[in-house]
Amino acid sequence: MFDFYSSFFSRFYALCHFATLLGFCDSLADPFNNRIILKLNLSHMEKQSGDLFGRWCQRLKFDSEDHKSKHHRFSEIVLRSLLSHEAPVLESLKLVVRDETEALDVGIWIGVAFAHNLRKLVLDLHNEKDVLARVPSVVWSCSNKLETLKLRNSILLEFPSRVSFSSLRKLDLEYVEFKDEASISKLFSGCTSLQELFVDRQSNIDVKTFTIAVPSLQRLTVVDDFPGDGKGGYVINCPCLKYLSIKGFEWIEFCRIENLPELVEAKILGVSHENILVSLTSVKSLSLHLSPFKEIKFPIFHQLVSLELFTGNGWNLLPLMLDSSPNLRILKFVDPGWYNKGGYPVGCEWSQPICVPECLLFHLEKFVWTRYEWQREDEKEVALYFLNNARRLKKAILTTKPIEIEELKKLEKRREMLKQLASEVKSPNSCQLVFEYETFTCNKIGGKNFRGRDIVNEDRISELPEELLLQILSSVPTVDVRATSALSKRWRSLWKMVPKLKFNYERHESKHHSFSEIVCRTLLSHKAPELESLELVVRDAEAEPFDVGIWMGIAFAHNVRELVFDIRGEEPDTYSSVLWSCNNKLETLKFKNSMILEFPCEVCFKSLRKLHLDNVELEDEESASNLFSGCTSLEDLVVNRKSNSDVKSFTVAVPSLQRLTIDDDSESGQGVGGYVINAPSLKYLFLKGFCNYEFCLIEDLPELVEARIMDVSYVDDENILASLASVKRLSLHILPFHLKHPPTGVMFHQLVSLELFIQHGWNLVELMLDISPNLQTLKLVYAWNWDRSDSPIGCEWSQPECVPECLLFHLETFVWTYYKWKQEDNIEVALYILNNARRLKKATLTTKPIESHRVKKLEKRREMLKKLASEVKSPSSCELVFECEMSTCNKIGGKILRGRDIVNEDRISELPDDLLLQILSSVPTEDVIATSALSKRWRSVWKMVPKLTFNYERLKRERHRFPEIVCRTLLSHKAPELESLHLVARVNSEALDVGTWMRTTFARPVRELVLDLRNQRKVPVSLTSVLWRCSNKLDTLKLKNSIILEFPSWVCFSSLRKLHLEYVEFKDEASVSNLFSGCTSLQDLFVDRRNYYMDVGTFRIAVPSLQRLTIRILSCYSGRRETRYVINAPSLKCLSIKGSEWIKSCIFHELVSLELFTGQGWNLLGLMLDSSPKLQILKLTDPSMYTKKDCSVERGWRRSQPKSVPECLLFHLETFVWTRYEWQLKDEKEVALYILNNARRLKKATLSTKSVWSYELKKLEKRREMLKQLANEVKSPSSCQLVFEYDTVPFE
């Protein structure tokens, strides 16, 4: 690799004065007051920025994940961009490489970047195979202006001699390794100006003693969390250090820190070496996370004024630090939240100091405790000790953990406990005691806050510079770009300067103008001096050669750089070369679909670098020759063909070509014609198809690096292989050819990576192993649909007489995808390679998925893989991996196992019963029962699972009927208590004995029951009260769908707290009354009904203990009488009503939060405002299922408006939220103004409108004006915060 870097440095140093075609953009605000973050991917910058400022972009970022291309390797993209860069100084370069093959070119990239006076370099190399990329010191010896260097992941640094980083100020080393300790010393000794160092290590295999000796260093961060062998450590010698952060160090032997006289701030997290504190005596701000369980001699921190301690593993560190910090002013306690405080180690409990520390008596001014555990007595004692003894304390802040808003009792208890703590505090009167605590809320509305009448944002996007606006508009279709001219005067002519135009006949349909007229007018109106890109998608009826000639003439007059011409139609038209020969600045040309290209004479495309011919035809062979001969600078050629009727012999003769892709799926070749390829500079070759051709002649390719040959047959395979002799990476998918011996004289000496598709026999494997002496990576891939009977005779596996040289000396990685573990030839091939590859480091065999319920097949595969592993004689350093899939989870679950420990032991069976039952509780019951076939250990485990779920849809294929399965399972179940039972059953097809189920279920305590009976015939099942007699421990009951409840007498649900009734009917009104009167502890009730139910005339809800009530009435047209609803719930705290204007309400004295679904009138709103005197939060939601224009007049707001202002508006309402506010409707505006102008205590009002399409410019402007008008009419107090939230939907 060292020679590879050195040989290319001199070649690229002289080429570093060209410009890049890359750019980027930051975040901005759009003209519709929504915050848009525009992130332009670097892989598309060439298309989006061009010459606006891309050539002078000073910050570049390349990520191989974002630069995937069929035509260019990532290395080529990076290199071309760097070589074409013109900025005199390159501020920043970030390289993220995820392919080990691309890492070979890192040295070239860095050399080119250093020639541009690079200031900041970020190099991130990812390698899934854990193979480190060695980066020698010569790579870093090319620049003396580098100020920031960040190296990450799979990098091995080697510095045999001292380097010179004279200007380096910041260095980050994340998960990189060093060759030896001398490399570390020579690196740091060469950084004479280094001020900031960050080190994150995950192993100490590379060096045992990591020495950091940098006299100029001011900031140092070291993270070492890797569980090592307890040997080695760190030596830190930085006399000028001002900031030190250390994390981990639990698995090292020592950490020696020289004196740090200038240290100001230090953070020591998770460190078990107490002697580190001796070196920190000069620190002023200290954060500690230590676990000293024994008494140690602490130094005195005379200069320490701020201390942060992490609690969680004991209190013995706290008294020591207080005694050692006489001048402490600020003390912070932080609970990291991951410790179990059930019991501290012996000696770590809180013990009050004998004497009050000096810092508490004379200096401590601020005390902060984050995540204070108000329920723990020891923490309360600690808090009281500080608050009562800190005589100079000015402010104390205690922050508790969040609590769910539904846990009302816990919230109340926390409030009482904090009140009690405050009453016991004897701090001075000048001390400010603050309790900060959070409450989790489920529905949080985002958006920006606006105070008073500052409602609408200014049009900030129009204030952006023109260059940036043009870059944004370049990524938008032209039809939308032209529409921006209606925004304002600023935008009237801006679209005419956009450097990229896109026309698509599907988007440009007009009654008044044809597509051709639209294109011509737009191009003639265009004023940009240079057109970067023009894309035309045309229907064949509108693509007359005369019109196309006009378009091309105008485009070439604007010096177009990229042209995409796509004609959609059935019959292709012929286009002469005169249309395309008018421009010598064209760099990219793409022809697609229904076209016939005619080039009777040689064309002149001097600057053309990329050419795509996608399903187009050429007039004759002469046209093909004239086209390619005129492309003197062509580098990338893509040819997709479906027929060879136009040209029999397709000749590609381009001396400058570097990348060639040919995909030919023609089925009309009939063994006639073929391809001739003459491209001596070619580096990448992709061939696919060629199934019906006579020949494929490829001239010598001396510079070829990568080749992919797929589905090629019926041509001279020997010729193809002979032409690829110089390739380094090769992928072959060739149909069977009967070669008993390799082609004469063909040897792949430079081939290091080989991928073979082996579904048609083994002769190709044997051949390629023999003629690839330096092969390092071998990949075998099976096709799923291959039948062994398709293999030709003579293609069976036969072991070579001599072991190939590549196996003996070079092969390091072996991968087999979809290994067929049942076939003998597969086992033989795998054993042959594994036993003869002496340098093998990693072998991965992936098998096909198996259905999870096929237990026997899974077990057989496991045994076969065990047997294979036992026969492997590979070296101990080889890592053998089996990756097995089960189709139910679609995830490779194979764990990496070293040596011969291939198959995992059954560790899950060793888990305790409690944990197994908890796991099985989240699995459907039919799958839980299936585990009984695994082993004896699992035979009876399922019978103790506390949660059961039955669904008839999942049990359709079982041989027993659904009722039998449920009964058998319930009778076999042995758990003393059933936490949950879910039953989803079909009524019309099977006779259900629900009574048997209930009696069997309630034979033991049941906590939760969900019964869902589905019936397509709408004949409900009647459930009488006798079924519920034994359910006095039921906590949650949910009944759904086809059920009729009959309660002739009072039932007893003494422990029921939650009840759901979804589409359930009652026998009569007495059944409703008897049900609710028996729910003496009910707190949460959900009722979902249809308004045409005729079961009861009055639905009365009388539950004194009820706190949360949700009622949903589905409105369906019917001529039947409607049910009246009466609510008597004096303890109700939360009420949600949807579609129920038939409710006869009571007075809700305790109601503080109300949510109403609008859509069918306003009489319910007026009624609820009058009936809720203490209401604090009001939410209106539009479900968007009603047409509000059809609401009757008598349901309008003016008829429903209260006669006097409700008490809740005058004295209590603080929050008002309206979701999907219809700003166009007059009645909704009246409602909003009524609430906003009469709510005197209102603190915040949020109105969220419906989305509007981005192209509806008039509607967007009208919405803005309407909201402004509404804001001007609001007379709410100045303290009210008014927020408008609205979305603009982009049109794609």
TrEMBL record:
<dbReference type="InterPro" id="IPR053781">
    <property type="entry name" value="F-box_AtFBL13-like"/>
</dbReference>
<dbReference type="InterPro" id="IPR050232">
    <property type="entry name" value="FBL13/AtMIF1-like"/>
</dbReference>
<dbReference type="Pfam" id="PF08387">
    <property type="entry name" value="FBD"/>
</dbReference>
<dbReference type="InterPro" id="IPR032675">
    <property type="entry name" value="LRR_dom_sf"/>
</dbReference>
<dbReference type="InterPro" id="IPR036047">
    <property type="entry name" value="F-box-like_dom_sf"/>
</dbReference>
<dbReference type="Pfam" id="PF00646">
    <property type="entry name" value="F-box"/>
</dbReference>
<feature type="domain" description="F-box">
    <location>
        <begin position="905"/>
        <end position="955"/>
    </location>
</feature>
<dbReference type="InterPro" id="IPR055411">
    <property type="entry name" value="LRR_FXL15/At3g58940/PEG3-like"/>
</dbReference>
<dbReference type="InterPro" id="IPR001810">
    <property type="entry name" value="F-box_dom"/>
</dbReference>
<dbReference type="Pfam" id="PF24758">
    <property type="entry name" value="LRR_At5g56370"/>
</dbReference>
<protein>
    <recommendedName>
        <fullName>F-box domain-containing protein</fullName>
    </recommendedName>
</protein>
<feature type="domain" description="F-box">
    <location>
        <begin position="458"/>
        <end position="508"/>
    </location>
</feature>
<dbReference type="InterPro" id="IPR006566">
    <property type="entry name" value="FBD"/>
</dbReference>
